[in-house]
Amino acid sequence: MAGFSLRKLFRRDDDREVRVIRERRRNVRHIPREGEVVLVVDDSKTIRFALKKMLAQGGYEVLEAENGREAIKMARNHSPILIIMDIVMPELNGFQATRRIRKMEETRDIPIVIMSGNQEATEKFWVERIGANDFMSKPFSRKEVFQRLEWAVYRNQIA
User: Residue 37: pLDDT above 80?
Assistant: First the structure.
């Protein structure tokens, strides 16, 4: 395999000390630092499992919560770099949990991506209104998950 070099795949942005990897399809994706945690909040075990598997393969530590009340506690205790939150859940829904997370000083700056199987404009409107950073529809692809993560967490760090 003449001409193949790992240097073409990896690049270091010394100005910002951010490690990134160039993927096959010209995507640039960050290599997470040790201890970078993503919190996945959904009442569906299947969705949590799928997201956990994708994110763990990408090098992230993943915490899971099955409702908004658990999400608030975990966000406060673990300071994740991102929260991916479903809307419809028992006890405390995603909108209510997002509002409470935004009101607490220690968690207000954590990026939140709301996800829903309902793609109606009213839900997207409320996502912006309650302070979430982005909206992701279900079903989602691996590519979309990492694009949302990159946009919400690292958007200003890549040259």
Answer: yes
